[in-house]
Amino acid sequence: MAFKETQHQQQGKEEVEAQAVIWEHMFGMAKTMALNCAVRLGLADIIHAHGRPITLFHLASLLPIQPVNPDRLHRLMRFLVHTHLFAKTTGLNGDEETYWLTPSSQLLLRHAEKSMSGFARVHEMTVSPWLSLGPCLEEGVASAFEKTYGMSRWEYSASHPDENRAFNEAMACLARLVMPAIVGGCERLLQGARSVVDVGGGTGTAVGALAKAFPSVKFTLYDLPHVVATVGELNGVDTVGGDMFSAIPKADVVFLMRILHDWGDKECLEILKQIRKAIPEEGKVIIVDVVLKEEEEHVFRHARMGLDMVMMVQTGGKERDEGEWAKLLHDAGFKKYEVVPIMAVYSIIVAFP
Fold first, then answer.
1. What mean pLDDT is predicted for residues 119-130?
2. 271-281: average pLDDT
3. How far apart are CA 153 and CA 145, in angstroms?
4. DSSP-derived pairing of the beta strands 54-55 and 347-352
5. Which architecture characterizes domain 23-106 according to CATH?
6. pLDDT for 159-188, tens place per residue?
7. SS in 3 state form for 158-192?
8. Matching Pfam families, A to Z (predicted)?
9. Of 75 and 228, the one with more pLDDT
10. Domains 23-106 and 170-352 share a fold
């Protein structure tokens, strides 16, 4: 009898745990949208400018929307504390709650050196395609984004300047976050290099950091003409507009950061073959992208797996494991490669002819 009761209790526990998994999946979007709300309201900046833990009443008085519903603000802050984005303290008498920053919410400060606020913003154009995740599994469908809007992510950006500006700001935000780790990883890889072309370099945040760190190297930013047109003056960097599928400027080293994950294997092979033409026999290509390791317990494991889903929805691209990278590089004419881990969600993959 006792055994049956224990077995029944175990089955009940397993069922509850299974339900909890589904509940977490169903309301996972609450984390994303609450983070987006915090960024758009500037909660971290308001609390930081206050200089000390702030009461709900005082926080409400400083929000850009007025008047504020205090109950709803309290519930938002309660959730953000629950997800460890903000911290809550109580007075000695336990009657006054105040809110303060955590290491995570410090990354939401707009003018912080490693701010993630621009990248954390959610835009309608990126949310709607998720409703077409199922239909995009059909063979021949380029992406959920294209299924939703009738054009690729890049065509949409080219015809919507405001959205393109927001996208470029988000990419620049992400570049500032990870570039210190990438610069450190590139110290050995750029020894002896005279020229580097940053393919798909956007507004130049990444190549600007590289040029500052390696002033003896000639750097060129290469991207689509409408992207290059938005680039300001960068010390030590030339800019060239063009199409990476047609040709790539010649250089000792070609650098690509978060470019190949936007594309399927066929397109990546075309890009890599153009790179192979652009570099000399003693040259190299440096790729900054995710290297998936499904079984590895890593602080960025969930983020990397999530990025793969984002690529499938937004661009039709993918994140790749080391075996997939090895095959791509071999098929493009690169004889050897190495993966250089860095303290970031990305890794450095360097390949040689």
1. 87
2. 96
3. 7
4. unpaired
5. Orthogonal Bundle (1.10)
6. 888 887 888 788 888 888 889 999 998 989
7. HHCHHHHHHHHHHHHHHHHHHHHHHHHHHCCCCCC
8. Dimerisation, Methyltransf_2
9. 75
10. no
The rounded distance, in Å, linking the Cα atoms of 233 and 208 is 10
The DSSP line for 5-63 is: HHHHHHHHHHHHHHHHHHHHHHTHHHHHHHHHHHHHHTHHHHHHHH-S-EEHHHHHHHS
Of the ranges 203-212, 298-307, 322-331, which is most confident? 322-331
- Residues 105, 111, 117, 121: what is their CA dihedral angle, to the nearest 10 degrees? 140
> Does residue 295 surpass a pLDDT of 80?
no
Domain spans, the chain: 23-106, 170-352
Its CATH class, for the domain covering 170-352, is: alpha beta
Q: How far apart are CA 191 and CA 341, in angstroms?
A: 18
Q: Which residue has the tokens 């889903």?
A: 309
Amino acid, single-letter form, for residue 199: V
CA distance 185 to 139: 38
Q: pLDDT class for 3, splitting at 50, 70, 90?
A: low
Q: Is 261 a catalytic residue?
A: yes
Question: What region does 192 belong to: left with phi over 0, alpha with psi -120 to 50, or beta?
Answer: left
Q: Which helix (H) or strand (E) holds 222?
A: strand 218-223
| Tokens at 136, concatenated | 């995009």
- Residue 22's alpha-carbon distances to 13, 15, 90, 162, 294, in angstroms, are 15, 11, 33, 37, 21
Calculate the alpha carbon distances from 231 to 228, 238, 239, 247, 262 in Å: 5, 10, 8, 21, 21
Helix (H) or strand (E) holding 77: helix 70-82
> CA-CA distance, 195 to 190, in Å (whole number)?
9
Residue of 50, 58, 160, 261 with catalytic role: 261
pTM assigned to the model: 0.87
Evaluate if residue 238 carries a pLDDT over 90: yes
